[in-house]
Known about the structure:
This protein is mainly alpha-helical. It is built from six helices and two strands, in the order αααβαβαα. The protein has a domain at 10-16 and 60-161. The longest helix is centred in the last third of the chain and has 19 residues, at 145-163. The N and C termini lie far apart (42 Å). 30% of the residues are buried.
Amino acid sequence: xxxxxxxxxxxxxxxxxxxxxxxxxxxxxxxxxxxxxxxxxxxxxxxxxxxxxxxxxxxxxxxxxxxxxxxxxxxxxxxxxxxxxxxxxxxxxxxxxxxxxxxxxxxxxxxxxxxxxxxxxxxxxxxxxxxxxxxxxxxxxxxxxxxxxxxxxxxxxxxxxxxxxxxxxxxxxxxxxxxxxxxxx
Length: 185
């Protein structure tokens, strides 16, 4: 089964919420209740590695998003100003890499698609061009050039090459959409 959902955000759950994603969802929720963690969002998590495995989902690449609501605990849209920086993004990337045991399963999933503006991104992210700072930040943490290329784009390319069919669909394959034909002429 292939599920591609850039909003699982395992880094957010692991780093910002300090959740051990090796535990089941029920165990995480129970631990938060036992520890008296009552702020909004506690006891409501929906993702963990055992749950993904139980559902038959093979996680190929976990994305790290650039939405301050997923990077800065206590974020309130329209009220809170971002104080997190791209360093927090790299913290989340590193967390996913540590959980996975390598850098082949983490990638940038920016979420910079127009749903919000710079008021909800890391404080040091002014334009999409600032994403070019992430490779240096990863390098300073000891990630190899190959690992950095993987996180920036290569892991997605590898993942999709492994799971998507190659080549054109077979003639008469009804599961594939018909080619577009220009109807103007």
